[in-house]
Amino acid sequence: MVNLPHYRLNVFSNADFPENIFEDKSGSFYRVSPNELYAKALKESSALSPKFSSKANEIIGNMKRILDDLEKERYSIGTLVANTDLKRISNLKNVYAALDACVVKFDSYEAERKELAALIARMGPATRKNDSFYKAFVGPYNEYLQDLHQMFNLLRLENTAEAVKAGQPLLKSAKKLSKELEDVEIGKLTKPQGLVVDELKMVLRKQISNLEKFISNPTPPEEYELYGSSYYFYNIQLAGTTNKYGTGVVDRGNEWIKANGGNYIYGFERPHFYKVIRPAAIQEEEKKVAVEHAPEVDENRKVVVDKEKSISIDVEKLLIEVYDNQEFDHDTISLKFNGEWILQKQLITKEPIRIYLPLVKGQDNYLILYADNLGTIPPNTCAIRWVNEKGKYNEVVLTSDYNTSEMIVIRRK
Length: 413
Known about the structure:
Blueprint: H1 34-44, H2 50-83, H3 89-123, H4 132-156, H5 160-182, H6 191-216, H7 229-238, H8 249-260, H9 280-286, E1 297-298, E2 301-305, E3 311-313, E4 317-323, E5 332-337, E6 340-347, E7 353-358, E8 364-371, E9 380-387, E10 393-400, E11 404-412
Parallel strand pairs: 2-11, 3-11
Antiparallel strand pairs: 1-2, 4-7, 4-9, 5-6, 5-8, 8-11, 9-10
Helix pairs in contact: 1-2, 2-3, 3-9, 4-5, 4-7, 4-8, 5-6, 6-8
């Protein structure tokens, strides 16, 4: 999402959250933090057969790495916005390239979630259809979950017309589940069990109401028009009544299964899908794709190249991290990529600035370091750390002064 001065939906900033929300040491966001669940899953995976445990651990490891990287992106983008002149179109392009990279990561996380869901379905216990709790809740709950995820899938593809059609079977299974819950005799339950059922019934009624409104009129509220009806209904209405926040149906449904002690597979929540809206000026600027020949002189300084520092990679956008790899001495730098400034007069510290470079395929791309000052310890040095297509980090150190600017040659395979 994007906030504009006249179009502000998000009132939060990095200052409102811990550095990694998934650790949640304060207990403010989760009953059990995702990182605790991750450690528990690894520990208890020994109870599974090796053919399932090794694959499950691989998938959840991938999911954790994506989440950790998204947290780094959140802080990096915040730093970029706070410390660069956003009136410069080149700086704005950097921000939007970083936001685009988050879209890719959200998509990658969803792909891992789907793979994990399929794996868990294969290794689940045999269905005991004569079990009274299965007939009263688990069976209708599973039918509801199947329709729910079909609805999520269509909304995520932003296929609003098909999503409206899918809303009908979901509405039917949600009402069936709601009816089964109304038949639960609250008086025979413990107080915690009764609370779970009451919360489950309440949020399910809210979701049913949201569904009915969406089916009859999928037009989003005015403030979400830029994002579209599928985005609004998926993230605000459906995820808001499915996930833990809002005390969602899946969260409470899983808790009801747990409270009954049955050996059943829990339902999956759905991560939000992430969408970036670009101002018209950025859209027009990004249509301009041009790669200059490597200059021998730039800004009246000799350009030097160390072929050992060249990069060859098969990615559309290369993630680089720019930071001071030595003692902090107030070095200020500018970076030029393919003839355009991507950083200007930027103070570099140990805290990396993350930038995504859109690489032109089959051509050499050029990244040039320009020293704006020499700091207190000349010459001006800057570390460029980059991630290859396998997710591995590599690093080069560039050196520049008032007479020379060092350049990296980057070739997209």
